[in-house]
Amino acid sequence: MMTDSSLLNSELDLQQQEELYQQLLLQTLGQINSESPDSKVIRPEPGMCVKTFSESNKEKVFINVCQSNSVPPPPELSREKLVELLQSDDPSGFRVPMSLGEPHTEIDNSSQGCTAYDVVINQDFFQKCQKDPLFQQFVILVSVEGLENKYNLELSREWKVLKNRKFLGSVSEQNIRTKSRPVIEELQPPYVPPLPEFTIIVEPPAGEPEYLIAEIKLPGVGSSRSLVLDVGEDRLVLTAQPSLFHLDIFHPFLVDQENSVAQYNSSTQTLWTVMMSTVGLPQIV
C-alpha cells in the first residue's frame, strides 16, 4: 500500500508512552477486578445479525446477537411451554439473561451510516434457538425489547435475519457479571476510544465506482506520527494513539490495497484516504 510511512510508524517516544499507558491500564483493570470479583471481561463469538428499523426516523438498526458460555442460560424451556408463554397475557414474565452493549456506528452495504447493537446470550441457548425458528424469533423479540427498555428506543417488529453475515462491525469485549441473575443484564463495556467523525465518498457517485475517499476528522491530533492506519480489501482501521480515537469500518466495495494513499492535514486535523475500487479492473490470470 502506497501510504505515507509516517502514518504507519510511530516515534520511539510515542511507542514508550503507549506501552506505559497499556501497563497502567492493565494495572487499573487488575485493581478493578480485585475490587469487583462479581464481574469479568469476555469477548463473545458472533452469532447472527438482525436488520430492523427505528420507528422514529426509519433509519436502519442492526442487532448482533452474539454467544458466550460466560452468560448464564435461562431456565429450561420446552417448545410447548414457549408456545403457552407467547399466548399468555404476560410473555415478558420469562427472563433471558443477556448482555446489552453500547451502540456503535457502522457503514451498511449501501455506503450509508447506521447504528448497531451487540447482544450476548448463553452459547447453548443460542444454538437451541438456531435449530428452532420459534426460539429464534423469541430471542430476537427479547433482544429488541431489552434494547428498547435500556436505550428508550422504538424498533420495528418487521426484522430480517441476514443470511451471509453473522456480525456487523467488529466484535468488542464486554464486562459481565459472574453471578447468575434471572433478568436482562445491563452490563458496562470497558473503555473504548471515541469514534471520529468520518465521511465515505464514492467517485463517481453513479455507475461503477472508481475510488472510495474517506475523510476522517481527528480534532486534537497534532501529527500523523500518532496515527496507525490499515487499509484492507474491504475494511479500514485507524487508531490515534494513545487511545484518542479508534475507527474500524467495512467499506461497501473491494479496493486495491497496493494503490491506496493517505495524507494527514495537521492544520485542519483531517485524514484523507483515497482507495481505488477493484470493480471494473482487469483480472490477472
Automatic annotation (TrEMBL):
<protein>
    <recommendedName>
        <fullName>PIH1 domain-containing protein 1</fullName>
    </recommendedName>
</protein>
<dbReference type="GO" id="GO:0005737">
    <property type="term" value="C:cytoplasm"/>
</dbReference>
<feature type="domain" description="PIH1 N-terminal">
    <location>
        <begin position="27"/>
        <end position="182"/>
    </location>
</feature>
<dbReference type="GO" id="GO:0006364">
    <property type="term" value="P:rRNA processing"/>
</dbReference>
<feature type="domain" description="PIH1D1/2/3 CS-like">
    <location>
        <begin position="208"/>
        <end position="273"/>
    </location>
</feature>
<dbReference type="Pfam" id="PF18201">
    <property type="entry name" value="PIH1_CS"/>
</dbReference>
<dbReference type="GO" id="GO:0000492">
    <property type="term" value="P:box C/D snoRNP assembly"/>
</dbReference>
<dbReference type="GO" id="GO:0097255">
    <property type="term" value="C:R2TP complex"/>
</dbReference>
<dbReference type="Pfam" id="PF08190">
    <property type="entry name" value="PIH1"/>
</dbReference>
<comment type="function">
    <text>Involved in the assembly of C/D box small nucleolar ribonucleoprotein (snoRNP) particles. Recruits the SWI/SNF complex to the core promoter of rRNA genes and enhances pre-rRNA transcription. Mediates interaction of TELO2 with the R2TP complex which is necessary for the stability of MTOR and SMG1. Positively regulates the assembly and activity of the mTORC1 complex.</text>
</comment>
<dbReference type="GO" id="GO:1990904">
    <property type="term" value="C:ribonucleoprotein complex"/>
</dbReference>
<comment type="similarity">
    <text>Belongs to the PIH1 family.</text>
</comment>
<dbReference type="InterPro" id="IPR050734">
    <property type="entry name" value="PIH1/Kintoun_subfamily"/>
</dbReference>
<dbReference type="InterPro" id="IPR041442">
    <property type="entry name" value="PIH1D1/2/3_CS-like"/>
</dbReference>
<dbReference type="InterPro" id="IPR012981">
    <property type="entry name" value="PIH1_N"/>
</dbReference>
